[in-house]
Amino acid sequence: MLWSFSPFGEAKVGIPYGVLKGLDIYAVFIFCFLANVLVFPMMMFFLDKVNVYFTRWRFYKKSALFVARRAKMGSGDKIKKFGFFGLMFFVMIPLPGTGVYAGSIAAYLFKIERQKAFWANTIGIFFSSVIVWLATLASMQVI
User: Are 87 and 9 spatial neighbours (Cβ–Cβ below 8 Å)?
Assistant: First the structure.
């Protein structure tokens, strides 16, 4: 569950880790999915409150601008063009850098309505988790 909450893997790491440790495959899916969903409200709080405070420091501001530029370059056109569905598909792809952390930053940068961004991230996380879960089970020949 902690892997799913961390920015170093999200459910893409948490699910295989839990299954490979021999935990109940259904509990692993549910807890990793829910932990990953909790990232969105945490990120929105950070971006709204903490980010504004930290931008006073030059190093943080430079780093934040670098991350914002990369987020806009990598998927910005598609998210801007397709809105909800663009964000959902971006989060759904189970590749590094396309999870809920990046999706939350993209929603913040493109000023997507909070409720829509939450549901786009949640649906994307769900499908990403299903893909990773099924791939893990198939590789272990559990299914």
Answer: no
CA distance 33 to 115: 18
The answer to whether 35 and 11 are in contact (CB under 8 A) is: yes
CA distance 28 to 90: 23
In whole angstroms, give the CA distance from residue 61 to residue 27: 40
Q: Which residues of the chain form beta strands (DSSP E)?
A: none
What tens digit of pLDDT does each residue of 59-107 get? Answer: 888 887 787 777 666 666 777 788 889 889 888 988 877 788 888 888 8
CA distance 74 to 110: 13
The residue whose two tokens read 């893990």 is 136
Q: 15, 28 in Cβ contact below 8 A?
A: yes
Task: Give the pLDDT confidence of 3-58 residue by residue, as tens digits.
Answer: 777 777 788 889 999 999 999 999 999 999 999 999 999 999 988 888 878 888 88
CA distance 41 to 24: 27
| Backbone phi, psi, residue 48, to 5° | -75, -45
Which amino acid does the sequence have at 127? F
